[in-house]
């Protein structure tokens, strides 16, 4: 039976197509299409869809306001009567659970709704505008960053449509509780001229930040979700977005520091770049200070000027010190490596001290069993690999610092 039905099982990623539509011409233009990076949060852990032949799923969004069209097409669908009651997966039912209400299933109605995008303007307060080189060498592209709170009229309806992208591009994503007014939002739009010469906006990226309370009367903002939509990646938008978040909060005296919730490797690299670029201007992070080692002065200046916490300030120190170190000089390079390895080794040393205490109170066989469980030797062997991985990450950040 499995062999007979194998052709009716498809990978959801392969059959799903996205578009950010600026005009009806984009619908027929294959170059405007892009695919999801994952779909297990919609179609299940194996990401498969069963029961259709020539299946295609189309999720089109108007570029500005993100009005949504869902189209599902196929040449054939299994008949439960002929296959012992086996039913095809309910595709629209699964997608309906994650789409904002009011989506279109009629393409002509969606095309008509594109007219409303001509009058769409971003919600909230304009924080920052910047220009980037066009990929084709043409005129520079203009982008704007806006700040929003949950009370801004119309924003939450827009956000319901925007957050649906998370499930296709961010693993373990979840929709936030917008009834909590401590959530704040930062959105990035491309500002462009339509074919008629009118100014219009296209959604490009966004971030959510939660304002955590810190005793006694302070705030500790935490960056939670960050997403750049695929057509706008590798332009430098995320770094501009992070800097806009920083600029908004660092002027507030009640803000202690700005943290990040469970950052991905890609986002941590962007965060490192922005923080290192900023701290590179501070007196405490100049080469002559870096060679003396990590200091409280660095912690204080990073926190007071850019609201960077101690752990992140240490990463910035290591990045900038590597940037300033002549790695052809064996002595200088060795000092740097030992400095980083000592930090990596600190938890291991703490564990060794704990084990020495246990050795005094445990019987030899109990102590041997504990050593085996804790895996100290394995931890020690892993340190070298950890260092090499960190230096590789730092070098990627340094390469970008040298070219900004």
From TrEMBL:
For this record, the Gene Ontology CC terms, alphabetical, are: chromosome, telomeric region; nucleus
Catalytic residues per the record? 261
- Please list the residue ranges annotated as the Histone acetyl transferase HAT1 N-terminal domain: 9-171
Gene3D superfamilies annotated for this entry?
A: 1.10.10.390, 3.40.630.30, Histone acetyl transferase 1 (HAT1), N-terminal domain (3.90.360.10)
Into which EC class is this enzyme placed? Answer: transferase
* Domain Histone acetyltransferase type B catalytic subunit C-terminal: residue ranges: 271-322
Q: Which UniProt keywords apply?
A: Acyltransferase, Nucleus, Transferase
- Which intervals of the chain are annotated as region Interaction with histone H4 N-terminus? 45-47, 210-212
Q: Pinpoint the site Interaction with histone H4 N-terminus.
A: 183
Q: Which GO terms describe its biological process?
A: subtelomeric heterochromatin formation
The answer, when asked if Acyltransferase is one of the entry's keywords, is yes
UniProt catalytic activity: L-lysyl-[protein] + acetyl-CoA = N(6)-acetyl-L-lysyl-[protein] + CoA + H(+)
InterPro entries in the record, alphabetically?
Answer: Acyl_CoA_acyltransferase, HAT1_C, Hat1_N, Hat1_N_sf, Hist_AcTrfase_B-typ_cat-su, Hist_AcTrfase_HAT1_C
Where does it reside? Nucleus
Q: Name one Pfam family in it.
A: HAT1_C
- Is this entry keyworded Nucleus? yes
Question: At the top level of its lineage, which domain of life is listed?
Answer: Eukaryota
EC number assigned by the record: 2.3.1.48
Q: Which GO terms describe its molecular function?
A: histone acetyltransferase activity; histone binding
Q: Which family does it belong to?
A: Belongs to the HAT1 family.
Protein name from the UniProt record: Histone acetyltransferase type B catalytic subunit
What is the species of this protein?
Pieris brassicae (White butterfly)
């Amino acid at each position: 039976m499995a062999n007979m039905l194998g052709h009716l099982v498809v990978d959801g990623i392969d059959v799903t197509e996205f578009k950010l539509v600026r005009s009806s011409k984009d619908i027929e233009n294959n170059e405007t299409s892009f695919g999801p990076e994952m779909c297990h949060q919609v179609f299940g852990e194996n990401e498969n869809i069963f029961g259709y032949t020539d299946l295609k799923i189309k999720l089109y969004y108007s570029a500005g306001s993100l009005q949504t069209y869902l189209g599902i097409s196929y040449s054939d669908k299994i008949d439960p009567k002929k296959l012992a009651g086996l039913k095809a997966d309910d595709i629209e039912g699964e997608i309906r659970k994650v789409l904002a209400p009011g989506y279109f299933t009629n393409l002509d109605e969606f095309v008509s709704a594109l007219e409303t995008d001509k009058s769409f303007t971003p919600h909230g307060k304009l924080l920052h505008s910047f220009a980037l080189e066009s990929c084709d060498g043409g005129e520079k592209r203009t982008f704007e960053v806006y700040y929003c709170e949950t009370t801004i009229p119309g924003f939450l309806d827009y956000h319901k449509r925007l957050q649906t992208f998370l499930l296709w591009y961010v693993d373990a994503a979840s929709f936030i509780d917008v009834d909590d007014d401590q959530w704040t939002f930062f959105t990035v739009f491309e500002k462009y001229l339509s074919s008629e010469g009118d100014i219009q906006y296209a959604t490009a990226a966004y971030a959510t930040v939660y304002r955590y309370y810190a005793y006694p009367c302070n705030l500790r903002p935490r960056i939670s979700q960050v997403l750049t939509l695929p057509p706008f990646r590798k332009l430098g938008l995320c770094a501009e977005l992070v800097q806009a978040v920083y600029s908004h909060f660092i002027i507030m005296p009640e803000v202690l520091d700005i943290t990040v919730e469970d950052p991905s490797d890609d986002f941590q690299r962007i965060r490192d770049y922005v923080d290192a670029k900023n701290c590179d201007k501070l007196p405490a992070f100049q080469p002559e200070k870096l060679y003396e080692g990590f200091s409280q002065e660095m912690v204080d200046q990073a926190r007071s000027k850019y609201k960077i916490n101690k752990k992140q300030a240490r990463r910035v120190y290591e990045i900038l010190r590597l940037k300033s170190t002549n790695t052809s000089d064996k002595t200088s390079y060795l000092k740097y490596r030992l400095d980083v390895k000592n930090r990596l080794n600190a938890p291991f040393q703490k564990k060794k001290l704990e084990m020495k205490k246990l050795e005094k109170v445990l019987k030899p066989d109990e102590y041997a069993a504990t050593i085996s469980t804790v895996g100290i030797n394995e931890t020690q062997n892993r340190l070298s690999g950890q260092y090499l991985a960190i230096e590789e990450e730092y070098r990627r950040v340094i390469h970008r610092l040298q070219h900004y």
